[in-house]
Amino acid sequence: MSQIIEALFLGLIEGLTEFLPVSSTGHLLLVGHFLGFESTGKTFEVLIQLGAILAILSVYFNKLWSIAKALPYDPMARHFVIGVLVAFLPAAVIGALLHGFIKDVLFDPWIVCMTLIVGGFVLMAIDRMPLEATKTDATRFPLSMYFKIGLIQCAAMVPGVSRSGATIVGAMLMGASKRAAAEFSFFLAMPTMAGAFAYDLLKNYKFLSANDAVLIGAGFVSAFVAALVVVKLFLDYVSRHGFTPFAYWRIIVGAAGLAALIVYG
C-alpha cells in the first residue's frame, strides 16, 4: 500500500509541475530518489505523463476540435497543425536516438539539481529583459519559429531543464507574448509527451508487471487531476506575474536537493 501512496504522490507532483517551468521530470527524479521509489526501467516517470496529456486535451478540446474540422478549408488551421508537427520533429528524432543515454546517464539527481539552479537564474534573467511581444497568437507563428522552438525543446531532454520552461523562454525570445508562448508550450506538449509515452511503452512493456501497472495507473490519475488545475490557472498567472516565482522555486529546490545529496547520498 505504501507504494501506491508514493505513486499517487509522485503523480500529483507530475501534474502540478508538468506545465510549469520547473521541470516535472527533475522533481520526480529527486523526490523518487529520496523516497527510495524505483520503477522498472524508469518507465513510471514517463508513462504517468499521459494523465497530463489528457488534462490538456480536456481543457482545449473545443479549440482543437474546431481546428480539426477546419483543416479541409482553412489554410491557417493547416498552418498551425503543420507548425506543431514541425516543432515536434526535432524531439522525436533526437529522443529516439538518445533514449538509452538519457535514461542511463542523464536521469541523475546531481544533474537535476544543477540544471534546476541554472534554469532558475535563466528564468529570472528572461523576466527582467525588455522583450517586445510582437506575436500574440500561438496558432499563427511562422513555420521557422515553430521549428526553432522545437529545437530549443530538445534541451529539456536533460532532466531539470524543463520542457515547458525551454519552449516558453525560446518563444518569448523570438517575440511571443508570455501568454502565447505558454499556450504553444501546452499544444506542443501533446505530441511530444504522447510520443515519449508510446516509445517508452514499446521499449519496456515486456518488463512491466501487474504491480507496475497498478502504480502507473495510480500516478496517471493523480497527474490528470493536478494537471487539470494547473492548465486552467497557469496562463492567467503568468500573464500577470511572469516567471520569477518559479525561478526562485527552482533555485531553492535545486540547492536543497544538492544539500540533501551531500548529507544523505
UniProtKB/TrEMBL annotation:
BP-aspect Gene Ontology terms: cell wall organization; peptidoglycan biosynthetic process; regulation of cell shape; response to antibiotic
Record GO terms (molecular function): undecaprenyl-diphosphatase activity
Coarse class of the protein's main subcellular location: membrane
InterPro entries: UppP
Membrane association type: Multi-pass membrane protein
Superkingdom, natural source: Bacteria
Enzyme class: hydrolase
Subcellular location: Cell membrane
Transmembrane regions listed in the UniProt entry: 7-35, 47-68, 80-101, 107-126, 184-202, 214-235, 247-264
GO cellular component: plasma membrane
Xref: Pfam families: BacA
The enzyme's E.C. designation: 3.6.1.27
Keyword annotations: Antibiotic resistance, Cell membrane, Cell shape, Cell wall biogenesis/degradation, Hydrolase, Membrane, Peptidoglycan synthesis, Transmembrane, Transmembrane helix
Known catalytic reactions: di-trans,octa-cis-undecaprenyl diphosphate + H2O = di-trans,octa-cis-undecaprenyl phosphate + phosphate + H(+)
UniProt record similarity statement: Belongs to the UppP family.
Its job: Catalyzes the dephosphorylation of undecaprenyl diphosphate (UPP). Confers resistance to bacitracin.
Miscellaneous information on this protein: Bacitracin is thought to be involved in the inhibition of peptidoglycan synthesis by sequestering undecaprenyl diphosphate, thereby reducing the pool of lipid carrier available.
Protein name: Undecaprenyl-diphosphatase
Source organism: Microvirga lotononidis
Lineage, uppermost ranks: Bacteria, Pseudomonadati, Pseudomonadota, Alphaproteobacteria, Hyphomicrobiales
Recorded name of the encoding gene: uppP
